[in-house]
Amino acid sequence: MDDDTPALERARDLPIWSGPVTPEPLTGGITNINFLVEDAGKRYVVRIGNDIPVHQVMRFNELAASRAAHAAGLSPAVVHHEPGVLVLDYIESTPLDEAAVRDPETLARIVPLLRLCHREIPQHLRGAALTFWVFHVVRDYTATLREGRSAYAAKLPELLAAADRLEAAVGPVEIVFGHNDLLPANLLDDGERLWLIDWDYGGFNSPLFDLGGLASNNGLAEAQERWLLETYFETPLNDSLWHRYQAMKCASLLREAMWSMVSEIHSELDFDYAAYSAENLARYEAAFGDFKNI
Question: Can you tell me which residues the record assigns to a coiled coil (predicted)?
């Protein structure tokens, strides 16, 4: 929303504070409104955001995934929660950017983090859990965009047909617990280790989605993608895996573009979704053009 005053007031008035606090807005969020709060010598991140059904974001799921990610050693602890509010320990750190992710040494540190996410979070997850299947998301977004008379309505049949082709190319998958939103800012470096944060879209999925999302969101070169797959799966890369991975990478780009298209007509956050849609649609079309030539 353009006016963050109600969110700020809610963060300020939480019952967990020992005295008056002054929430400071944190920039960068495009799904939530976030604040940094200092109380009794400690700092916390307050995330304000309700369920977002058009994006299949359910806060009960974010809470469960956040707790499991902390137990797995990936994320900060959950300090407090109530409907529409999640309070986490603050990690003194620097968010990565695309260039940092592409750095070979940093990329080598990210792979174990992904393995930990995929394999350890299910050991700690409690209660009902969601599945994040990108092709279902794309089909649901298609319906939402049609209903909302999106400016992209005429393009939807083409995108849906491409998604069907990509889903067939992905084929049967291994199921792990995915982060499913590997934008660089969701990776933090505290100088000693990396952290993985923001579990809005956490859910069971193929590891290929996180691997493809990491590559597409951060502009990895082909040689780095091949290294990433061989390192993650600990086996030489073959043509079948490369083809399935490329299909999932295209799907991750398509989903990001359609996420923004839906946000253009439904989100109240102050963000240039139109530019983000155009940028990601162009990236998807380039990747899909390459995929068709594999």
Answer: none
Tell me, what DSSP letter sits at residue 77?
A: P
Cβ atoms of 106 and 96 within 8 Å: the answer is yes
Contacts of 273 (CB under 8 A, 6+ apart): 260, 261, 263, 264, 267
Q: For 5-89, which CATH superfamily applies?
A: Phosphorylase Kinase; domain 1 (3.30.200.20)
Which residue's structure tokens are 């083409």? 158
Fold that domain 94-292 belongs to in CATH: Aminoglycoside 3'-phosphotransferase; Chain: A, domain 2 (3.90.1200)
- In this prediction the pTM is 0.94
* Run of H or E residues at 168: helix 156-170
Tokens 């929660």 locate to: 81
The Cα 26–Cα 80 span in angstroms is 18
178-213 per-position pLDDT tens digit: 999 999 999 999 999 999 999 999 999 999 999 999
